[in-house]
Design a protein that fits this description.
Blueprint lengths: L1 E2 L2 E3 L2 E3 L4 E6 L2 E10 L3 H19 L3 H17 L1 H12 L3 H23 L4 E4 L6 E9 L2 E5 L7 H12 L3 E5 L5 H13 L7 E3 L4 H10 L3 E7 L2 H13 L3 E5 L4 E5 L5 H13 L9 E7 L3 H13 L19 H16 L3 E4 L18 E4 L6 H4 L6 E7 L2 H9 L3 E2 L1 E5 L3 H10 L4 E4 L15 E2 L12 H4 L1 E9 L2
Parallel strand pairs: 1-5, 8-9, 8-11, 9-10, 11-12, 13-14, 13-19, 14-17, 16-17, 19-20
Antiparallel strand pairs: 2-3, 4-5, 6-7, 7-22, 15-16, 18-21
Helix pairs in contact: 1-7, 2-4, 2-6, 3-4, 3-6, 4-5, 9-10
Bound molecules: nicotinamide-adenine-dinucleotide (NAD).
The site of nicotinamide-adenine-dinucleotide has 27 residues, from helix 7.
C-alpha cells in the first residue's frame, strides 16, 4: 500500500486524513492512500489557481508549449510505472493502461504544438480609416475539470492539455475511485516546470468537498465527464451562474452489421469495442443490430471471439478483460443483466450469476451477450457501462438506422458493410457525434473532434483544435492611430 501526495499551490501534500483506493481485482486490502482534503483545502486550491492564472496567461505560448512537451516526454519515460498504477486502481489490463498513458502524452504534445506556433487571433479589416482591428482568443481564468474513473489519465489529459495550453489555470477533481492516475499527470506537469498554482488536484470524499468545489466564485468554466445524473445537475447549477459548462455524458452505442459485411472482421471489431476495458468506455458498443439473413452466422463468429477472451486481474499476463471498477459497478451490471432476462432476453454467453469460478474478492463479470433483445426492454435504452452486449435482428438498412437512433443518447455508432453508398447514407442519418464504418466505435485520435449529440453531451467538442474554443473567449480590439 502506497501513500500518494496531491498537488496544491505547487506543493505536494500528504498530511492529514487519508482515503483508501482499491484494486478492483482484489478488494481485500487498499492499494493506495491519498489525502482526504477538507473544504478549506479546496479554497486554498482556488486561491493558488487564481494567482496561477494571472501568471500563466502572461507566459508566452512558446514557453507553455515547452512545458507541455516536456511533460509529454516524462509520461512516456514513466509509462511502465504509470500503466501499473492505472491497471491497479482502475482494473483495466496493462496493455490498455499503457495505451492510455501514451495517449495522454499525445494530448499534451498536440496542444503544446498547436499553441506553440504563437498566433491565435485574427487581424480584421476596419471600414474606419487609420484603424486596426483584431480578434484575440484569450484564456478564461480558472477552469474546474471533473473526471470519472473509467479512463483516469486520458480524461484529465484531454481536458487539462487544451486548458493549460490556452493559458488557463485548473483545478482537477479526479474520481474518488481512481485519483492516482491523475496525480501522475500532475507530477509530470510539475516536474516539467509548470509554475506553482497553475494546476491543483482535489482528492477526497465528494460529499465533503462538493460545495467548496462547485460554489467557488472564481470558477470561469467547468468541464465534466461522467454520468447524466450528476452532469445534468451540474449543468443547471452552472447555467444559473452563467458559467460555461461542457458535459461529456453517457452513451448507448450501436453497431450495425449489414448482409454484405466482412463478418469475421465485424465480429472481431464488435467484440473489441464491446469488451475492451470491460465495456467501461463511454464509446463502447452495447447494441448490435444485424441484418436477419446473416444474424446466425454473425452471432456464431461473435461467440467465438467472446470465448477467446480471458477475464482476470488487469496486471496478470494473458488477461484480455479486467474486472469492473468496483463492487457497486459490478452489482449494477449484474442487476441490469438479470432485469433483461426477466424482460425476455436470453443470455447466450457470460454472466449467469455472480462471479462463477472468478475470484470472489474481485469485481469480475464475464463478457456477456444477450439475444432476443427488443426495444421494449430497459437494456435496449439504459447505459450499462459494463461488458454486456445486446443483439437484435432487423430486415433492412432503414430499420437498422431507425434502431440506432432509437436512443436518448447520441455518442457513437458504427456500420459494417462493403457498400460505399450505405456508408455515406449511414453517416448522414445516424444521430451521433462519432460515426465509424468498418471500425470500432472507440479509438479516436487526439486531433479528431470528439463528443456526443442529444443526452450524450454539450455542443462544445473535446479534442482537436476545436477544443480550444471552450477554453478561450474572443476579444475584439480596435485601435485608431490617426
Ligand atoms: P459520475 O457522474 O458518478 O462521476 C463523475 C465525476 O463527478 C467523479 O469525479 C465524481 O466524483 C464527481 N462527482 C459526482 N458527484 C459530484 C458532486 N456532487 N460534486 C462534485 N463532483 C461530483 O460518473 P462515473 O460513474 O464516475 O463515470 C461513468 C460515467 O461517465 C458513465 O455514464 C459514462 O458514460 C460517462 N463517461 C462519458 C464519457 C464521454 O466522453 N461522453 C467518457 C467517459 C465516461
Amino acid at each position: 500500500m502506497r501513500t500518494v501526495e496531491t498537488l496544491l499551490g505547487g506543493q505536494w501534500e500528504a498530511s492529514g486524513e487519508r482515503i483508501d483506493v482499491h484494486d478492483p481485482a482484489d478488494l481485500r486490502a487498499p492499494a493506495f492512500r491519498v489525502p482526504a482534503l477538507r473544504p478549506e483545502d479546496v479554497t486554498r486550491a482556488y486561491d493558488a489557481a487564481e494567482a496561477g492564472a494571472v501568471l500563466w496567461r502572461r507566459t508566452s505560448p512558446l514557453e507553455r508549449s515547452t512545458v507541455l512537451g516536456r511533460a509529454a516526454g516524462l509520461l512516456r519515460e514513466r509509462v511502465e510505472e504509470i500503466a501499473a498504477d492505472i491497471a491497479t486502481e482502475n482494473g483495466k489490463t496493462r496493455a490498455e493502461a499503457r495505451g492510455e498513458a501514451l495517449k495522454a502524452a499525445d494530448f499534451l504534445e498536440y496542444y503544446g504544438l498547436l499553441v506553440g506556433r504563437g498566433g491565435y487571433g485574427t487581424l480584421l479589416h476596419d471600414v474606419r480609416p487609420d484603424t486596426r482591428t483584431s480578434a484575440h482568443q484569450e484564456p478564461l481564468g480558472v477552469v474546474l475539470a471533473i473526471t470519472p474513473w473509467n479512463d483516469p489519465l486520458i480524461t484529465p489529459a484531454r481536458k487539462l492539455a487544451p486548458a493549460l495550453a490556452a493559458g488557463n489555470a485548473a483545478v482537477l477533481k479526479p474520481a474518488t475511485e481512481t485519483p492516482v492516475s491523475g496525480l501522475h499527470l500532475a507530477r509530470a506537469l510539475h516536474d516539467a516546470g509548470l509554475p506553482a498554482g497553475v494546476l491543483n488536484v482535489i482528492t477526497g470524499r465528494t460529499a465533503e468537498i462538493s460545495e467548496a468545489l462547485l460554489g467557488d466564485p472564481r470558477i470561469a468554466a467547468v468541464t465534466f465527464t461522467g454520468g447524466n445524473a450528476v452532469g445534468d445537475r451540474l449543468r443547471e447549477r452552472f447555467a444559473v451562474r452563467n458559467i460555461r459548462f461542457q458535459g461529456e455524458l453517457g452513451g448507448k452505442n450501436a453497431s450495425v452489421v449489414l448482409s454484405d459485411a466482412d463478418l469475421p472482421k465485424a465480429a472481431r471489431t464488435v467484440a473489441a469495442a464491446s469488451f475492451g476495458q470491460a465495456g467501461q468506455r463511454c464509446t463502447a458498443t452495447s447494441r448490435v443490430i444485424v441484418q436477419r439473413d446473416v444474424y446466425l452466422e454473425f452471432t456464431k463468429l461473435l461467440l467465438d471471439e467472446v470465448a477467446a477472451l480471458r477475464t482476470g486481474p488487469g496486471l496478470d499476463d494473458g488477461t484480455t478483460m479486467g474486472p469492473l471498477s468496483g463492487s457497486r459497478q459490478r452489482d449494477a451490471v449484474l442487476a441490469a443483466v438479470a432485469g433483461a432476462v426477466e424482460q425476455g432476453a436470453t443470455v447466450i454467453a457470460g454472466a449467469k450469476g455472480a462471479g462463477e469460478e472468478l475470484p470472489e474478492h474481485g469485481c469480475f463479470v464475464r463478457p456477456t451477450v444477450l439475444a432476443d433483445v427488443t426495444p421494449a426492454m430497459d437494456i435496449w435504452h439504459d447505459e450499462v457501462f459494463g461488458p454486456v452486449l445486446a443483439l437484435r435482428a432487423v430486415d433492412s438498412f432503414d430499420e437498422a438506422v431507425d434502431a440506432v437512433n432509437d436512443s436518448a443518447f447520441g455518442l457513437a455508432a458504427a456500420l459494417f458493410t462493403r457498400d460505399l453508398g450505405a456508408a455515406h447514407r449511414f453517416a448522414d442519418r445516424a444521430e451521433c457525434g462519432q460515426i465509424a464504418v468498418n471500425l470500432t466505435t472507440p479509438g479516436w485520435d487526439v486531433h479528431h473532434p470528439f463528443g456526443g449529440f442529444r443526452d450524450s453531451g454539450s455542443p462544445f467538442k473535446e479534442q482537436g483544435a476545436e477544443a480550444l474554443r471552450f477554453y478561450t473567449r474572443v476579444k475584439t480590439v480596435a485601435i485608431h492611430f490617426g
